[in-house]
Amino acid sequence: MKLLKNSLVTLNLLLFTIVIFIFCSTCVAQNTESEKKVDFNYLQFRDSEIISTHAIKYALQIPSGFSKIPPLNHKPTFNNHPFNVSVAALMKEKHLIIVHAEKVTDNSNFLDYSYMEPVKLNGLNFFMKENCLVLNKKIFKEAADIRYIKKNGFDFGVAIYLKQFFVNSPDKNYEYVLSYGERVCDCSEKTINDDFLKKFNKTLENNFILTQLK
User: Fold this and answer.
1) pLDDT tens-place string over residues 178-198
2) Which residues have CB under 8 Å from 74's CB, separation 6+?
């Protein structure tokens, strides 16, 4: 029973955190307030980097040829927990990089990614998730982040393959999520094969230069 409960929480949390990008077999409605003025901004473009400014501070170098999508700051509610969410993105043809910096504003210690695969990214500790997501009208309607990115010029097509890196603060009230995706024609094994994954991971490796800030 405990394992089942943890699994359900995992699916729901992924859906929210990556904003549609994973996820699960069922969608969770989000109460977004993206059109209202907010009193926070956890992501900033500085020179050639995207800087996170909340409790988890990283600098991501902007790869050559990528166009900037400026930060969107909004206040969704998930599982009765209010969040502050800043999201910014970089795009180049079929390639998409997304940065999320978030806070649980009720200090409920809600965020924990230790159930995921631990990995290193530029020598830094993260937890990782990857999968292919077929997009539909419901996703674009419910997810403020992806709707915002599409509005700013990225063509998601019918599906996107994503690799995502998560880290939460020790108190589990802050998180940083770095996502790399490529538009694909479908999520079949014929498309997402060993050759595709090899090229995908090579592109990711060449475009992610991340450093931790003090």
Assistant:
1) 999 999 999 999 999 999 999
2) 32, 33, 34, 36, 38, 85, 144
Collapsed DSSP state (helix, strand, coil) of residue 51: strand
* Token duo for residue 74: 């909004």
Amino acid identity of 114?
S
Residue with the two structure tokens 């079949």? 188
Whether the Cβ atoms of residue 177 and residue 150 lie closer than 8 Å to each other: no
CA-CA distance, 83 to 53, in Å (whole number)?
A: 16
Region of residue 81 (phi > 0: left; psi between -120 and 50: alpha; otherwise: beta): beta
**Which letter does DSSP use for residue 66 in this model?**
P
Does residue 199 sit in helix, strand or coil?
helix
User: What's 101's DSSP letter?
Assistant: E
Please name which of 110, 63, 58, 57 lies closest in space to residue 83, comparing C-alpha atoms.
110
Q: Which pLDDT score, from 0 to 100, does residue 101 have?
A: 98
Do 146 and 134 touch, CB atoms closer than 8 A? no
Which amino acid does the sequence have at 36?
K
Which amino acid makes up residue 141? K
Look up residue 27 and give its two tokens: 């969608």
The two tokens of residue 126 are 């993260």
CA-CA distance, 69 to 154, in Å (whole number)?
9
pLDDT tens digits, one per residue of 150-179: 999 999 999 999 999 999 999 999 999 999
Instruction: Give 102's strand partners.
Output: 85, 175
**Can you give the pLDDT at residue 36?**
57
Supply angle C-alpha 126, 56, 78, rounded to 5: 85
